Amino acid sequence: MPSLCLGPQITRRWWFRSTATIALVGSVRSWAGELPLAEPDSARLELLRQQGAEAGLPEFRQHEGKRYVALGTAPNDFMQGALTLCEGLADDFLDHFRAREFQVEAPPARMTIVALSHHDEFSRFLRTDLPADVTGIYEIGSNYLALYDGRSGSPAGAQAERANSITLFHEATHQLTFNTGLLDRNADIPLAFLEGLAMYGEVRRPRGRAKIGAVNRERLGVLVRALQQGKALLPIADLIRTDAPFTEASTVQLAYAQSWLMIYSLMRNPQAAERLRTYLNAFDSAQPVRPRVELARDCLGELDQLDQYFRGVLVRLSRGL
């Protein structure tokens, strides 16, 4: 898939695709980052306002929280709701990873949410014609997440509300991983870990009944159906070596589901979680890049043994469906 180059700094954008009640991540594209994280809130927000004005959107309104600022054209209840949900997610995220001895810190500056009224505004703001099932993105270069109110034009209110919350928690988890020190924004981290962590967080329910790290039944369902159909799971070494399985139609759903299973399985075992901490800490953009599989094997152990461990976890989880 070709990149979209709008400036000198090429970064990555994650797309979130939603279909009915099940949200499935689609693909990764390149984009130009416009502002580094260290810029003050006012400058970053003004740049986003200008981007909206250049797209012909109505003037952005603004809502503020403890850790976030939301701005955009979406209804006030949607924007305020997004703020409230993200504040709760951030608290849960920090508590969850600190309890497992990951070195995460509260973000040094408030994070940004761009909330738009409908899909047309969303596409215009992002300056590209997005498919209708792309409901949200996290822009790593400019460090904001953007989404639109999926209730617009949807006859299924409860389904749209759930799709909205999954989208928001997925993209907000991406944002948190890069703003709390868990991940280095400039490092070459395999998508399997980036997306696995986002899906690990997307399970949170709006009222917190399901927390970060709960079983992701949508992703688990993809894996169980694959086993029932006699499909082979992708070797973890292949998911680490290249990001291609995440962009190919024949493997994309399985790749994302297995990435969730990988993070879930590693986090459930204290020794495996320690190895995951070591692995994520090894990604330092200031250091020479090491071959992906070699680094993973050094930190996580023999990858074929991990394949067996993950499959065992999957079998146990499938019995609870």
Write the layout of secondary structure elements.
Blueprint: E1 10-19, E2 22-32, H1 41-54, E3 61-64, E4 68-72, H2 76-99, E5 111-116, H3 119-126, E6 134-139, E7 144-148, H4 157-179, H5 191-202, H6 217-228, H7 236-241, H8 252-268, H9 270-281, H10 292-300, H11 303-318
Folded structure, characterized:
The protein has 321 residues and is α/β, with parallel strands linked by helices. Helices cover 48% and strands 15% of the residues. It contains eleven helices and seven strands. It has helices spanning 41-54, 76-99, 119-126, 157-179, 191-202, 217-228, 236-241, 252-268, 270-281, 292-300, 303-318; strands spanning 10-19, 22-32, 61-64, 68-72, 111-116, 134-139, 144-148. Strands 2-1-6-7-5-4-3 form a seven-stranded mixed β-sheet, sandwiched between helices. Strand 4, helix 2 (76-99) and strand 5 form a beta-alpha-beta unit.
Q: What labels would you give this structure?
A:
disordered N terminus; 7-stranded mixed sheet; alpha/beta; single chain; about 50% helix; about 325 residues
